[in-house]
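Protocol step 4 of 5: obtain the predicted structure for the target chain.
Materials: sequence only (see below). No template structures provided, no constraints applied. The aim of this step is simply to have a reference model before the mutagenesis design in step 5. Sequence pasted as it appears in the construct record:
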Amino acid sequence: MIKGDNSFVPSVALRIAVRGGVDAMALLLTDGGAVGGDGDVVFHGAPTHPSGIVRLTDVGDGTAWLDAALPTVEERITRLLVVGSTDDGRTMRDVAGLSVEAFAPDGTSVARYDVTDGGPETAMVLAELYRRAGGWKFRAVGQGYANGLAGLATDHGVDVARPTAAQTPQPVPVRVPASAPVHVAAPQPVPFQVPASQPVPFQAPPSQPAPVAEPAPAFAPPSEPQASPYGPVWSYGPVFPPYVQSGRDNDVISVGGLPPGPVVVHLEVRGDGYTGLTVLDWKNKEKDYLVNSTEEDFRGRVLTTVPSKGNLRLRLEAEGPWRVEVSPLAAACVLTEHEQEFRGPDVLLHTGGVADLTIQYGGDDNLIVNVYELARHDDHTALPRDENLVNEIGARRETVPLPEGPLVVQFEAADGPWRARLRRV
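Step 4 output (structure tokens):
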């Protein structure tokens, strides 16, 4: 990615590598762009968020790791800033190999940003994760602060305490064997402090070859399992960076390089004509109908499976501009006890125990809801047979029982707005 780019990432427990030997930290921000309190600042003095959703570890090789369990992030948190800073006389232009990279639980790199235009700043927002359309996006930011952490902290509502030289905390690097799991000790929070400012003479960085991108490290899971109040983190199906394509009118979309298994296709079409989306088989003939709608400005998410051999091929019928995004199943929205608003067909996840699903539907045509039970289904390249929960016409309220997760809840047909929430049993 280059500065300013953004893309969706799976809504799973991500590991974020901050390279270059800088001090890493995370700020968890609310709607107003500020932290909700001191606990929303994760740094070496307080390496674990009070909720456990974000953890910071440093294995002493110049790479710091932030573990962010996206499915369990509190609703009040809308953005997570990944920050790098220096306090050893270096500025950001002096840092070689400065980068930030996010990894999925299986070790797949889902986003990476290499900072190539660092300046005289001593602190920088490297990247941010932010909520969008029921999921999470990663943005390459690269915004530096000439007045260092003090300016960055003040801009985001952090109460800065400036220590004397004798009080300045000295981080102790922790070194562990490469093969050993990293265990995070119970944190001992300390007030967030900014190093005492001192003039830094400008020095041109020595000439050196551009850093070579290092291979992605093998994924090491967090020291404790990350779980939500509604069940474990989703782990079924392949994880990969989303594929996005835009166009206009009728087309055939061919997506290569995806691992076999169930995926979510998000389709948006601007216009008031017919919208159809069909899967093509290996003979290039229509196989499964995913969308069949006359709704104006159609939008929705549908479920399909990448074949074990060949590409995922889709025939799109549309009158107007369109956008298609193919994402992992893990990127779908997780059902909770908080009411969530949707529109059109969608794919949702249930990760907890037995529960009731309450639905309020405002459309005029069919409402069709299916579930796929995955608890005893070990083949991640396919889905089990679905079970129909709802098949009714017109606006209505429905409450249906859900078995224990993990399971996929597919709103196969829904031509208007609707709401859904879980009710514990």
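Step 4 remarks: The chain has a mean pLDDT of 81. The first helix runs from residue 148 to 155.
Proceed to step 5.
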